[in-house]
Amino acid sequence: MSLLRNVGTIGGLTMLSRIAGMAREMIFSRVLGANAVTDAWFQAFIIPNVFRRLFAEGAFSAAFVPMFSKRLHGHDDAGAGLEEARSFSNDVLSVFLPVLIALVAVFEIAMPGVIWLLSEKPVDPQTYPLAVDFARIMFPYIILVSLVTLFTGMLNSVSRFAPGASFPIILNIVLIGALLTGEWFAANSGATIEQIAYGIAWAVTGAGVIQLAWLYYWTRVEGFRPRILWPRITPEVKRLSIIALPAAIGGGAYQINTLVQLFFLNQLEDGSVSYMNYADRLNQLPLGIIGIALSTAILPSLSKFVGGDDKVGAARLQSDAIELAMLLTIPAAVALAICAEPFVTMIFQGGRFDLADAAITGRVLATLVLGLPAYVLVKVLVPNFYARADTKTPVVAAFISLAVFIAFNVLFLSRYGVIGVAYASVIGAWINVAFLFAVLAYRGFYRASGALILRIARQILAAAAMGAALFYMRGFLTEWFSAGVFARLAALAALVGAAGIVYFGIAFAVGAIDRQRIATLTKKKAP
Q1: More confident: 397 or 246
Q2: Once rounded to an integer, what is the mean pLDDT over residues 276-294?
Q3: Helix ranges restricted to H, 58-161
């Protein structure tokens, strides 16, 4: 299967998930708005997500997928490989699950202290207990989603990408249902914002149960038969832990970044956490579709190239991934920067989320997207280290980025407020990318060719022309941005359609898109 097709499968399903997530946030903003209660909910929701990304999607995937894939495909006899892979995954599951349960138990007890550490001092007597309750309700979600990640890694090893890429859609659908139910109760039974927020918190954990059932079904279809055994620290499980530890530390830097950001946001006025969340939702749309899809798709192939000592193949695959990533990310960043406030207004404004909220969120988004290419490049470059069993270098990069992020938050917070937090995030992301590129070049693992740099320069030229067209168009559509639903959809379609026509038209004209290369990517078989 080609790189482009793998990315298309993962990216397409991720796009559906992000669209569902966007619909969720649209409804969330209208039902709950941006206030102290929503800040408490988002703060609580961030905590299990931090540990999900740290233990499940980050460190665990980086270590588990290559080891599982090696056992599955490392035998001439397919049956022997399947049996060894089954045994390895069952041993991991049997150790992994008790650790997760213990972690959740500790945090359920310690949650008041965790929320206190992240809150503004003195704590708000109204929102503090809400945040504690919400976090306690949602924290068990990490057990469920971590098991989902285990099953996803198993399926990715046999190129079954669709189930793992689709499971986030379930969470969004369940939360949309909970939000609409809460709004119905508010309209018909006088339910308060606090009561609606409690219902949505319970829906998070309920969605995790459904996600786990979905992935378990597909692992059974592929013949893996996951089983929970008496926990045994086998040599393979021990090696997995040794490899995962540096990745966990590196992932910890990224997640500490999230918690540090939450701490700084809590020092600002009510609504700041919500503004950042809504802006980041739009920023995460291209990041998830492009960056995560590419990262997931290239890791198995890079591992095979590196294992076969094929430096040319590994470098070619890395260049393909960077070119494809920038081809899609640069125009997305320019479009979001130019039309940040219109997009936020069209998508989120309404109900308890007013035009003033949309204006602030738009300014945050316009700042965040300055780092969007960097966020995507990090996702694309890190697999080059993981494929070489080097989980330490991304750790160093992540902690350097974290230090820069904290330093600039201290400098910017009092002067720029929530915008300053966004600027600090952007600077930290570009420092991270620069470090990763420098290390790859220094070690002789990868150097960007002149042809790739020239191609990206042409992409920037095409994106600049697109940005000028959008800047001109948005002036004619201003009144449509906060009008009725159909007017908003028409304005959104006009902006997106014009952006696509101008960008890809000019990109083809100036040679930013290599038609022969795209055709090769489509036809070539993965090694």
Answers
A1: 397
A2: 75
A3: 61-73, 78-118, 127-138, 141-156
